Structure formats: structure tokens, C-alpha cells
Amino acid sequence: MNQKNSLGLNKCFLDLDNPFQLFQRWFEEAKKKEVNDPNALALGTANKEGIPSVRMVLLKGHSEKGFVFYTNLNSQKGNEIKENPNATMCFHWKSLLRQIRIVGTLKQVDDQTADEYYNSRAYDSRIGAWASKQSSILHSRDELLDALENYKKKYNDKDNVPRPSHWSGWNLTPSTIEFWLDGDNRIHERLKYSLDKNGSWTKSLLSP
User: Fold this and answer.
1) Is a pLDDT exceeding 90 seen at residue 160?
2) 127 within 8 A of 155, measured Cβ to Cβ
3) Residue ranges per structural domain of the chain
4) DSSP states of 132-176 as a string?
5) Are β-strands 66-72 and 61-63 bridged in parallel, bridged antiparallel, or unpaired?
6) What CATH number does the domain located at 11-206 have?
């Protein structure tokens, strides 16, 4: 039985011209095998001075338009994105020994998309979006806990909590997507999709 695709890579890379289709296949496998948060990714951003920062966020939507996560727009990441929309994402699934790296630019999602996701969240998470001034200094933990209680009193109807204007989503439109598979003796397998000037994806093998 042939265990390789047409490029000589492991058959898990398939033979697809569309990287979003390959991402979907790998992501579905990760959801079956990864113990915790298969949608977790490392998000790398940089401010206008080019100083980088990275943190874990959760993927909350994806399509051929890009990859979506949500955050406080006034957080460190939110402010950095406003200054510099270039960003990168990295998924690492230990259960599959696979990694996906995505590079592109971020754009805020429209209000309807943000509202739909916000309203799907648990009540306490919606309240948290109001109470937490993400990345700002807390004088004490009680300051946050008091804010949570105050917003619960203000929005005591669990079915009617409006989305804060400072909370929304970002969509990363990719220019490159690289798929990585662990190999024996660190002879890894790498396949990179790059978007050309005509809007078509081209594939390249990369040395480990």
C-alpha cells in the first residue's frame, strides 16, 4: 500500500491544491485525538516598533476567508494589531506530531459576526468581557471580582447581555500556510502553500 503522496510526503499531506481543505482534514483529526483544546494556537504579533509578543488563543472560526479569534480590542494584542496588522499563527498537535504555521494580515470581523459568536458564549463569559480590562494592571484581585458582580447586577437577564464595543474578533487572511510532520532523526516533512499575485496557491517542499 502506498504510504506517500505524489510529492513523496507522508499520505497525511494528501494531494490537495487548496490549503484550507488540508487544514480542515488535519483539524478534524486533531479534534479526535488532542486531549485539550485542539483549537489552541500561538498567536504572534508585533507593535509598530517591531517588538514581538506571542500568546495562546483559541480558534473560533475558519473558512477560505481566514482564521478567526476573539479578544478585547484594547488588550495588548488588540493594540498591537491596530498598529501592525501582520501576524502569524502556529498550531501544534502533540498527539499527531503535526504543526501548522500561518502568516497573514488581520482585519476586524463585522459586527454581525462578532454579535453571533458573543451571544453563543456562556453568561459568565459574556459578563467577563465587560468586567475585564484585559492586560491592564489590577490593584487587587478583588477589583476584578467586584467588577464581575457589578456587571452581573447590571445585566441580570442572562439572555440579554449586549456585546461590548471594545470586544470583537479578528480574521487572519493568510499569505502562506505551512504543514509540518515530525520525522525520525529530525528529518521532518514540510509542505508550504504560498499565495501568488494572481490569487492562486502554489506548493513548495521545504527542507527540515
Assistant:
1) yes
2) yes
3) 11-206
4) --TTSPPS-HHHHHHHHHHHHHHT--TT--PPPTTEEEEEEEEEE
5) antiparallel
6) 2.30.110.10
d(CA 53, CA 196): 28
Q: Say how many CA atoms lie within 13 Å of 106 toward its Cβ.
A: 26
Max CA pair span of the chain: 64
CA distances from 16 to 23, 146, 201, 203 (A): 10, 52, 10, 10
* Residues labelled catalytic: 186
Please write the tens of the pLDDT for every residue from 97-155.
999 999 999 999 999 999 999 999 999 999 999 999 998 999 999 999 999 999 999 99
pLDDT digits (tens, 9 = 90+) for 42-101: 999 999 999 999 999 999 999 999 999 999 999 999 999 999 999 999 999 999 999 999
